[in-house]
């Protein structure tokens, strides 16, 4: 995910004492007026005294005042800068590993961008996993915003908001265990994702040698699900083998898998087998304040796509049968996968 720094522009008004401006100043010297001429008939020889200045009472009442807001060169006070506060929601079990769900609250009324890793950072997380930490923060509270796989005793999330205050949320022994109530999303996601499979036996006649497999991600509209205040952008879908290999872009995965002799302890003579896993990563993309942030869907229905579906094929030399098993569990004729938790 590409990241770019969006600087925060702060207007500093000289009228508020934030700096000085060198500008020319005109000095006017008022002189004491001379004697006024005695009233009488007009005399053309009398020349008006140029030193006479108007009395203050003669100045128009509607002249701009230095304290009149309309005459000030300053801007209106924008009010206090917004804060962005991280929060630990709960601790969850991810196939035997610890995952920590985080939320945030943006006190402002518009999106805020925090991309600099100094101001937006994690500690004690699994470094090989990408939790898609938010970089554009929607106004209000967003929960859960993401979860991270714990790589240390105290996973934490630190944010420095526009108010300049650095805040840290840390999971500890008092953090509650996740349940449906704690994981109730502030951004509803009604999508129903699925992986559907079809295949052709190769060759079309005679003893099967391989399978041409087609897997399709369904139930995922083109537009992302985003928190209120952010602009939904097109989703990104990629497929792979569940471990980051054999990847391809888009919702369709094609695999050619070769049948081989079953040499397991419970093998049936003359039978052949084939095993392949297909997984899909769906990434929501949301825009705001001129930047884009990415997130994994909070809908648990996407977990099946994330960890993948294993296709278990068996052949008796004439016919092929297929069984689908949710990863990381293995086929009946093979042991479960021991590669660990799926990295995103």
Summarize the SSE layout with pairings.
Layout: E1 84-94, E2 97-106, E3 112-113, E4 120-123, E5 136-137, E6 140-149, E7 156-160, E8 166-170, E9 194-202, E10 210-218, E11 231-232, E12 236-240, E13 248-249, E14 252-258, E15 260-261, E16 272-288, E17 291-295, H1 303-307, E18 309-315, E19 320-326
Antiparallel strand pairs: 1-2, 2-6, 3-5, 4-7, 7-8, 9-10, 10-14, 11-16, 12-13, 12-16, 15-16, 16-17, 16-18, 18-19
Radius of gyration: 35 Å
Strand content: 35-45%
Please state the average pLDDT score.
80
Query: What structural class do helix, strand and pairing data support?
Result: mainly beta
Percent helix: under 10%
Q: Give the biggest sheet.
A: 8 strands, antiparallel
Separation of termini?
A: 13 Å
Tally of DSSP helical segments: 1
Shape: elongated
H-E order: EEEEEEEEEEEEEEEEEHEE
Strand runs, count: 19
Spans where pLDDT lies below 50 across 5 or more residues: 1-78
Question: Can you put this structure into words, describing what you see?
Answer:
The protein is mainly beta and 344 residues long. It is 1% helix and 35% strand. It has one helix at 303-307; strands at 84-94, 97-106, 112-113, 120-123, 136-137, 140-149, 156-160, 166-170, 194-202, 210-218, 231-232, 236-240, 248-249, 252-258, 260-261, 272-288, 291-295, 309-315, 320-326. Strands 11, 12, 13, 15, 16, 17, 18 and 19 form an eight-stranded antiparallel β-sheet that branches. The chain has a three-stranded antiparallel β-sheet with strand order 1-2-6, with no helix packed on it. The protein has a three-stranded antiparallel β-sheet with strand order 4-7-8, with no helix packed on it. Residues 1-78 have low confidence and may be disordered.
């Amino acid at each position: 995910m590409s990241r770019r720094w969006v600087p925060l522009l702060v207007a500093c008004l000289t009228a508020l004492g934030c700096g000085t401006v060198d500008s020319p100043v005109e000095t006017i010297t008022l002189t004491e007026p001379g004697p006024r001429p005695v009233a009488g008939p007009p005399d053309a020889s009398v020349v008006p005294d140029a030193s006479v200045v108007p009395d203050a009472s003669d100045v128009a009442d509607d002249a701009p005042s230095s304290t009149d807001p309309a005459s000030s060169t300053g801007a209106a006070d924008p009010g206090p800068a917004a804060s962005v506060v991280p929060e630990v929601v709960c601790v969850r079990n991810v196939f035997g590993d610890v995952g920590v769900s985080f939320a945030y609250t943006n006190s402002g009324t518009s999106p805020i961008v925090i991309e600099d890793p100094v101001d937006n950072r994690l500690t004690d997380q699994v470094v090989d996993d990408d939790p898609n930490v938010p970089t554009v923060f929607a106004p209000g509270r967003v929960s859960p915003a993401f979860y991270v796989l714990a790589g240390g005793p105290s996973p934490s999330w630190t944010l420095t908001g526009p108010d300049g205050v650095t805040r840290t949320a840390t999971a500890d022994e008092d953090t509650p265990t996740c349940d449906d109530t704690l994981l109730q999303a502030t951004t509803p996601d009604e999508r129903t994702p699925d992986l559907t499979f079809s295949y052709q036996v190769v060759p079309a006649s005679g003893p099967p040698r391989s399978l041409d497999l087609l897997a399709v991600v369904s139930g995922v509209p083109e537009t992302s699900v985003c928190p209120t205040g952010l602009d939904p952008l097109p989703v990104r879908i990629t497929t792979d083998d569940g471990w980051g290999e054999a990847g391809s872009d888009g919702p369709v995965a094609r695999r050619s898998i070769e049948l081989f002799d079953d040499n397991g302890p419970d093998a049936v003579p003359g039978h052949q087998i084939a095993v392949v896993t297909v997984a899909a990563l769906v990434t929501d993309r949301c825009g705001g304040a001129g930047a884009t942030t990415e997130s994994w869907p909070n809908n648990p229905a996407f977990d099946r796509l994330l960890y993948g579906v294993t296709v278990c094929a068996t052949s008796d030399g004439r016919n092929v049968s297929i069984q689908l098993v949710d990863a990381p569990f293995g086929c009946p004729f093979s042991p479960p996968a021991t590669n660990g938790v799926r990295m995103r």
